[in-house]
């Protein structure tokens, strides 16, 4: 059968009913063997050492990231192109350039200079 563009037969095991009792028995054996007991590994010394080392590594990474951030802010500040263009296009600079060319800025009507 096709459902939403997928062949459902690819996802269905026709013999699942036959396998179910064996799977349940296998699961019960695993539970009795203590395979799912999580308390056994959490108390040993090696695990505690690894957890402590992982904590130290995380703290070191945080410290390095903070130092990098501080060093970045001390470096030269970034100036956007827009602000540089505004500085280059200032009215005072235009007046200076016009005067260097011999044009009397005071003769230009006010509405042109705005």
* Overall helicity: 55-70%
Please compute the radius of gyration using only Cα atoms.
Answer: 38 Å
- Number of helices, counting only DSSP H or I runs of 4 residues or more: 6
Give a count of the beta strands, DSSP E runs of length 2 or more.
Answer: 2
Beginning-to-end CA distance, first to last residue: 76 Å
The main sheet comes to:
2 strands, antiparallel
Structural class, from helix and strand content?
mainly alpha
Roughly what fraction of the amino acids lie in strands? under 5%
Question: Ranges with pLDDT <50 over ≥5 residues?
Answer: none
Q: Which series of helices and strands comes N to C? A: EEHHHHHH
Provide the residue-averaged pLDDT: 80
The shape is elongated
The strands making up the biggest β-sheet line up spatially as: 1-2
Structure keywords:
elongated; NOG_C; two-stranded antiparallel sheet; mainly alpha; NOG C-terminal domain-containing protein; 114 residues; 6 helices
Q: What would you say about this model in short?
A:
The protein has 114 residues and is mainly α. Helix content is 65%, strand content 4%. It contains 6 helices and 2 strands, in the order E-E-H-H-H-H-H-H.
Could you explain the architecture of this structure?
With 114 residues, this protein is mainly alpha-helical. It has a domain at 2-73. 65% of the residues lie in helices and 4% in strands. The protein has six helices and two strands. A two-stranded antiparallel ribbon has the order 1-2. A hairpin with a 2-residue loop joins β1 and β2 (6-7). The longest helix has 30 residues, at 45-74. The mean pLDDT is 80.
């Amino acid at each position: 059968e096709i459902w939403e563009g997928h062949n459902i037969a690819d996802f269905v095991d026709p013999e699942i009913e036959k396998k179910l009792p064996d799977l349940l028995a296998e699961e019960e054996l695993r539970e009795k063997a203590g395979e799912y007991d999580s308390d056994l590994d959490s108390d040993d010394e090696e695990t505690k050492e690894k957890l402590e080392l992982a904590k130290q590594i995380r703290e070191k990474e945080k410290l390095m990231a903070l130092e990098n951030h501080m060093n970045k802010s001390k470096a030269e500040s970034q100036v956007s192109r827009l602000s540089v263009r505004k500085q280059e296009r200032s009215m005072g600079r235009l007046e200076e350039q016009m005067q260097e060319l011999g044009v009397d800025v005071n003769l230009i009507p006010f509405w042109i200079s705005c």
